[in-house]
C-alpha cells in the first residue's frame, strides 16, 4: 500500500459516489473509458468494465469498454448479485465460466438474462490504500474457462486501475493538465 493511495482513498470514494468536479469528472471518465478499452485488448476479451463501491448503495457502474460491459455492470447493480459483488466481498478474483450455469447462485441466472449477451465474467477486486474499492470485470459473450494466466493478468490490470483511479482523483478540479496524466 502506497502513501499516495492511502491519502487519495477519500477522493476515490468520492468518484465512486459520483461526486466529481464538472469538466474534470468528464475528462476522468474519458480517460477511464480509454483505459478499459485498452485493458480489453491486452486481455484478449470482449470487454472490460469497472464498478466502484458507492455508499450506501453498494457497487456502482462507472465505466465499460462496450455497451455490453455497461449492461453487465448495470445488471449487477440492479440484481445486487454477480461476480463483481462476490469479488469485492471475498477480496479475491471470481471467475465465472458461464453465468447461466450456476444453479447454486440464484442471482446469476437472473444476471445471465439481464446482462445478455455476456456469458463469462472474471471479476477482480481493485484495492486502493489497503481497501477494496471496486471490481474490474473482464467478460466474454460466449462461455469460456478462465485460465490462471488470465486471472494473473486481471490482477495486474486491477493494480493498474487502482493507480489510475488515484491519479484521476488527484487531478485538480479545474482539469489543469500540468498535474494530470501524460
Describe it.
The chain has helices spanning 3-16, 22-43, 67-79, 83-90, 106-114, 148-170, and strands at 47-54, 58-64, 94-96, 120-128, 131-140. It is of the alpha+beta class and 182 residues long. The chain has one domain (3-145, 154-170): GAF domain (Beta-Lactamase, 2-Layer Sandwich), CATH 3.30.450. The longest helix is centred in the last third of the chain and has 23 residues, at 148-170. The protein is globular and about 45 Å long. The two termini are 23 Å apart. Mean pLDDT is 81; it is low at 173-182.
**Biggest sheet features:** 5 strands, antiparallel
Strand order, main sheet: write it out.
2-1-5-4-3
| Gross geometry | globular
Provide the number of structural domains. 1
Number of helices: 6
CATH superfamily: GAF domain
Distance between the termini: 23 Å
If you average the pLDDT, what whole number results?
Answer: 81
Amino acid at each position: 500500500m502506497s502513501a499516495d493511495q492511502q491519502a487519495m482513498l477519500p477522493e476515490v470514494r468520492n468518484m465512486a459516489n459520483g461526486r466529481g468536479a464538472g469538466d474534470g469528472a468528464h475528462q476522468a471518465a474519458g480517460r477511464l473509458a480509454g483505459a478499459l478499452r485498452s485493458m480489453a485488448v491486452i486481455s484478449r476479451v470482449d470487454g472490460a468494465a469497472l464498478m466502484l463501491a458507492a455508499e450506501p448503495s453498494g457497487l456502482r457502474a462507472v465505466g465499460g469498454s462496450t455497451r455490453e460491459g455497461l449492461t453487465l455492470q448495470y445488471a449487477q447493480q440492479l440484481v445486487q448479485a454477480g461476480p463483481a459483488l462476490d469479488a469485492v466481498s471475498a477480496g479475491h478474483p471470481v471467475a465465472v465460466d458461464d453465468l447461466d450455469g450456476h444453479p447454486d447462485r440464484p442471482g446469476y441466472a437472473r444476471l445471465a438474462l439481464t446482462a445478455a449477451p455476456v456469458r463469462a465474467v472474471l471479476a477482480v477486486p481493485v484495492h486502493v490504500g489497503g481497501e477494496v474499492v471496486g471490481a474490474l470485470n473482464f467478460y466474454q459473450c460466449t462461455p469460456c474457462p478462465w485460465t490462471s494466466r488470465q486471472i494473473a493478468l486481471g490482477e495486474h490490470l486491477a493494480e493498474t486501475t487502482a493507480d489510475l483511479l488515484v491519479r484521476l482523483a488527484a487531478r485538480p478540479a479545474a482539469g489543469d493538465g500540468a498535474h494530470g496524466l501524460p
